[in-house]
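Lecture 7 notes: from sequence to structure.
We start with the chain below.
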Amino acid sequence: MIPTMQNVTKIDDHAIARAFLARASEYMLGDYLPKIERCLEKLSDEQIWWRANDESNSIGNLILHLCGNARQWIVCGVGLAPDSRNRDSEFEQRDVIPRAELVALLRSTLSDVQTTLQSVDPSTLLEYRKIQCNDVGILEAVFHVTEHFSMHTGQIIMLTKMMTSDDLRFYEFDAGTPVQRWRSDSSGSS
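Predicted structure tokens for the same chain:
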């Protein structure tokens, strides 16, 4: 359960830290992941790897990059796991990796991110870790990955809409009230 004003009787730094970590995890797994999955369901493998030009990234490259970034910053940086990221390879990839493999990689990465965030001691949120050879605060690292995921999710959505000319139906407006559809069904059947 994400701590809220309603279920926390005394607000303390630890409650705020726990709420921040839980919310970051919820954004990545409950918001961005289902939206990316909905996009991938609409595209062929060739569309997933299409590039507008040599300087642009495909959706496949963006997914590899999101996995590399989240793993390096959260799992390895915050969680202190060994880091073997090769960032350049995320963008150099040109061979088609099938959609199912990309989805499995993304889910596995975000599962590891969630496990790492759940294990963070709230009292350490202001401690520093070495990430990409820089001293980075744990709070900053989590905020960075959440923002970074949001930005590239938006790019994936835009590219999907460009290629499909399709409404991705993230929201329905039943009785004038927006209802989120990506959380309840990421199978694409809505």
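Points to note: Confidence is low (pLDDT under 50) at residues 184-190. The helical segments are 13-42, 45-48, 59-78, 87-92, 99-119, 138-164.
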